[in-house]
């Protein structure tokens, strides 16, 4: 039988055991202490009520202190809960939540409006950029139009001016466009230094309008006095060539100034697209209209250029462009010596690759091959040339300048070799299948030229020179282009007579092979690169 002291110890242990969950949970449940004392009985008969336990006074005092402390803790917790979750505080929390939600909604709507405004401004900026590019292209279009405007209606013009198609006078009227363009190209940098790039570009429409008005006057004057008609026709060619030559410098320079870095290749390629479009429009105009009306279209496009001039974006005048001495820097600065050599070689490669011979004598090739309608073959080649040039606009940014140029040279050399084999087979008497081969070779060469050798030399020339001599570099390259083109026009008939028509393109194949070897070694990639990086890469090669 247990002694009283042992029973007290056991009762305190049981009480602590029963209170432990309540204390660990943050406080006793109501009536926990009384229940503990009430339900504690003798050993062997637990839970039997009605008998008080004999507990010492010290234990009772300690238990009372713990009980009072737990009660105070419960009161404090209840008061805290009422302060937080009471009716007044709950309404305040709800109001605060509504205010926060409204503020978040306003912030989100403001952010969405700002993003939409930014997108709209970006779209408007891109739209204005492309419209400015289109507004700058009529000068390039006039250059291509002037090159091809008198080719198709040649016989009608000669009859109206009382000239023979093989006369020296007619050859002079055809060739006078190149020296006039040369003068315009040389004066363009001076105009930029004195009047600014935008003003110089806008003023070129005057020359095209005057040129388009002089041609109908030449026909009317030729019916009265042939000499007067010849002089007016020559004046129209000179004035138009002057404006076109200036445009070959101003348009690429302007496109390079407004183009962002990631779109520099695509926007710069629009210059070549406009030239090819002018060639195509001139051929169709000469085939469908009388020659005065066809040549008068130059005035119409000049007026269109004037109407589109407000769309041109303002470009800040840079001190390096107005400082002068650009030609001296171009010829004496060792940093731009290698880029200048590369630009000249690329322009020579463009003109000596055989494109002029194909354009001038494609009708003759198709005739020798037995094509039923040689003129239709030439027009088909022109249309394909136009679409290939349009395809080169995104392609030049995706593939890169250097890679596209090298692949275009391979395609052009292969097409010329196929054309030479086809012409030799036709001479040997294998004429049954040479028509398809000749047509495929000409189209393949035209496509290869349109995506590489046509636009890329102009584009690279606008990317590898610093601003202090960029306009002068464009001037020099445009001038050399005119000289190279004139030498091809004079030298290709000599090659035909000396080598024979089937072998006339063998020098062009050799030029393409040598150009491929030089470009693959010396030309760095210029896509998405600053001028300083390109110049440093040039000097390391």
UniProtKB/TrEMBL annotation:
**Membrane-traversing stretches:** 129-150, 170-192, 204-222, 234-255, 267-288, 340-362, 374-396, 408-427, 433-454, 501-519
Ranges for domain Major facilitator superfamily (MFS) profile come to: 132-527
Could you name the domain of life of the organism this protein comes from?
Eukaryota
> One GO cellular component from the entry?
membrane
Q: How does it sit in the membrane?
A: Multi-pass membrane protein
Asked if Cell division is a keyword of the record, the answer is no
User: One GO MF term, please?
Assistant: hexose transmembrane transporter activity
Report the PANTHER family cross-referenced here.
Answer: FACILITATED GLUCOSE TRANSPORTER PROTEIN 1, SOLUTE CARRIER FAMILY 2
Specify the protein name: Hexose transporter 1
Source organism per entry reads Cladocopium goreaui
């Amino acid at each position: 039988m247990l002694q009283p002291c042992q029973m007290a110890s056991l009762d305190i242990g049981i009480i602590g055991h029963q209170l432990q969950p309540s204390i660990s949970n943050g406080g006793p449940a109501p009536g926990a202490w009384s229940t503990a004392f009430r339900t504690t009985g003798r050993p062997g008969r637990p839970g039997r009520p009605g008998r008080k336990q004999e507990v010492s006074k010290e234990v009772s005092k300690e238990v009372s202190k713990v009980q009072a402390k737990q009660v105070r803790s419960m009161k404090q917790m209840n008061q805290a809960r009422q302060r937080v979750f009471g009716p007044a505080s709950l309404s305040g929390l709800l109001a605060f939540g509504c205010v926060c939600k409204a503020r978040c909604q306003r912030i989100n709507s403001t952010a969405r409006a700002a993003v939409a405004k930014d997108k709209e401004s970006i779209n408007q900026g891109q739209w204005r950029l492309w419209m400015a590019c289109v507004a700058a292209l009529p000068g390039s279009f006039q250059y291509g139009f002037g090159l091809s405007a008198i080719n198709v209606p040649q016989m009608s013009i000669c009859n109206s001016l009382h000239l023979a198609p093989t006369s020296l006078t007619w050859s002079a009227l055809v060739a006078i466009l190149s020296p006039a363009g040369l003068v315009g190209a040389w004066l363009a940098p001076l105009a930029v230094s004195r009047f600014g790039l935008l003003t110089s570009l806008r003023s070129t429409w005057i020359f095209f309008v005057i040129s388009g008005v002089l041609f109908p006057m030449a026909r009317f004057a030729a019916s009265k006095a042939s000499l007067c008609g010849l002089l007016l026709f020559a004046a129209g060619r000179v004035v138009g060539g002057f404006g076109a030559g200036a445009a070959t410098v101003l348009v690429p320079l302007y496109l390079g100034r407004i183009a962002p870095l990631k779109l520099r290749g695509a926007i710069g390629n629009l210059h070549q697209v406009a030239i090819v479009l002018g060639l195509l429009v001139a051929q169709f105009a000469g085939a469908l209209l009388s020659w005065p009306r066809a040549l008068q279209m130059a005035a119409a496009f000049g007026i269109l250029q004037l109407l589109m001039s407000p769309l041109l974006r303002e470009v800040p005048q840079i001190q390096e462009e107005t400082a002068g001495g650009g030609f001296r820097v171009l010829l004496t600065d060792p940093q731009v010596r290698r880029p200048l050599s590369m630009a000249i070689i690329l322009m020579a490669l463009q003109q000596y690759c055989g494109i002029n011979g194909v354009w001038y004598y494609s009708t003759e090739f198709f005739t020798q091959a037995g094509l039923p309608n040689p003129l239709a073959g030439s027009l088909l080649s022109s249309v394909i040339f136009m679409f290939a040039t349009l395809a080169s606009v995104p392609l030049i940014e995706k593939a890169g300048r250097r890679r596209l140029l090298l692949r275009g040279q391979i395609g052009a050399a292969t097409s010329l070799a196929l054309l030479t084999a086809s012409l030799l087979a036709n001479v040997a008497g294998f004429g049954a299948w040479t028509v398809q081969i000749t047509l495929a070779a000409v189209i393949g060469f035209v496509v290869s030229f349109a995506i590489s050798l046509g636009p890329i030399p102009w584009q690279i020339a606008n990317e590898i020179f610093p601003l202090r001599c960029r306009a002068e570099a464009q001037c020099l390259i445009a001038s050399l282009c005119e000289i190279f083109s004139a030498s091809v026009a004079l030298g290709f008939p000599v090659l035909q007579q000396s080598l024979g028509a089937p072998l006339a393109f063998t020098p062009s194949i050799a030029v393409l092979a040598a150009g491929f070897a030089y470009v693959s070694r010396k030309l760095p990639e210029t896509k998405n690169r600053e001028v300083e990086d390109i110049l440093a890469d040039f000097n390391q090669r």
